[in-house]
Amino acid sequence: MKQALRRARADVLVVGVGSPIRQDDGVGHEMVRLLAQRFPGGLSSEVLFEPDIGFAETVSRFAELIVLDAWDFDGPEPYRVVDLVPSASCAPVQSFVSHVFDWELILAVARDVFGHVPKARLVGVRASAFEYAEQVTPACMLRAGEALEFVERCLSLFGSGAEVG
Amino acid sequence: MPKVIRIDPVTRIEGHGRVVVRLNDVGTVDDAYLTVAEFRGFEKFCEGRMLWEMPTITSRICGFCPVSHHLASVKATEAVLGTQPPPAAVKLRELMHMGQVLQSHALHFYFCALPDFAVTDTMPPEARSAFGLLQTNKAVAQSAIKLRKAGQDIVDIVGGGRLHPVACIPGGMSKSLDNYSRVELFRGVHSVVKLAQHAVKMVKDLQQKHTHTFQTFAAFPSLYMGLVKDERLELYDGAVRLVDQDGVKVAEFEAKDYLSHISETVDEKSWTKHTAFMSGGEGGLYRVASLARLNVAPSIHTPLAQAELQEYRQLSGGKPQHASLFYHYARMIELLYAVERAKELLNDPEILSSDVRVPVKRSGGEGVGVLEAPRGTLFHHYQANDDGRLTKVNLIVSTAHNAIAMNRSIRDVAQTLVKDGDIPEKSLNRIEMAIRCYDPCLSCSSHAHGRMPLEVTIVGPDGAVVSRRRHGDFPPGP
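YS: structure for the whole thing
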């Protein structure tokens, strides 16, 4: 059941993105649910269908942002991690839809309007099933498990200066 | 030589439309109108669907006012089923509605309307947008985002979805509100009270700075329609009232009787329907939305908004305000009301009740739901057979109510701007400004910002294109 964002820790925000009624697209939501069980009372997390401009204010209050999403890529690895970098300008290059912003633009608005941009990275779990159904496929959940280990290492090492390998 | 000027598409509105200006032989305006260029067809393809699916289906009509359709739909559905939701469910729905009004009004004012005043016509088109503001005035940008976010958070938590809510079901709500979320939402709306007051101040400052423009731009008397309850502004539920240009009540009726007062016609030039008040003159012209609501409602029951209303009324000597730019002013007073009302509702202990749903029994019949969407009075009217399968669906959205008035505004403005059969580039925006006063919703969820693809096509009497000009083709102004 949807609740207000719980700000259990002010340093890292974990966001699961996607549609839970499109099979593997809901893997980000599922990962947030599992993480919340592993960090009871100790995780700031949110689930979204897609981020909008208002989310810039939210992310600007955190030191680090971890976005969990499904990623349809070719390759053997279970997940990929990429740094999210704010775009040079907070004005979209093309026209925009008010309720859908890409992360680079949200980070740019956080920087330019709210004065702080978190270190941000996207953890994309390899996914291939996007039909209308409510469950993430078992194969995708196995890959999500590996990605979660990475995210847990990130969370435990936060502030130590060490980088997760 | 007669000519046709097209502004296609109109920017910084919700949806896709174009303006057509018809010129006569001497190069002045014969007629001008807004054409809605998209076809949605919800009324037709919903026929055959089950009644209880409608709140979820119709919230997809628009990405700006999904809550309005969600709520009007569930009210119409419950009218068919003869069901009354529990008091806590009604309060949760109104709270969701306040969130929608807050986010929608903030989005329209800051992102769509304000650039018309905060930037000049001579600036490059790409700078004449919310993102031009975003980069030049951080305080305003922060206000815009924070106000909208406070509303969106309410919709998200209470409605179960930031964009398309799902929580309203026939008989009540699918979930109650937990206390943690209630406290967080209260903190959110409380934190934007001052921003809402500042938004009203901003529009007052604009009105004082551009007094003549505010008083004369697309100003004409008309009838006005809106919901009223206990002689106060009402956005969620109440009687439908129409007043004349002097503020005298000319009709008041329950939603179910709307067809006895309002007629609909199909406009061959547009995909939107036009409505008319059947007992009114001038083709039944009336207006809805913020300007109309404040002309119809004698008072507002929240203190800060009421104080602003009194000041607002003084500008028109206590009579209805007829000038279209005052839509923006009225809209910000309503935004303040939405913040105050959301706080009231969140302070009400009953909002936490778990008694949010009553059982419903499958049946058929007929029902009408009405509320004040941010852009005006919204009717959903359903007929269903005994299985609950829909046999007829009728939707009247604010753009239909305001269609005749918008065309009148466009024509009035065009008549002052088009000279010798041509149109200066900056006048394109003036014509769009007339439309933006009404904040029309063209039933769509995409919105053109950034480089405005505005184009004017001049067509000769033989139908051949004489010239076509776009924003950016024009040299900078003086």
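YS: worth flagging: The mean pLDDT of chain A is 86.
IM: good catch. Also Chain A touches chain B through 30 residues (CB under 8 Å).
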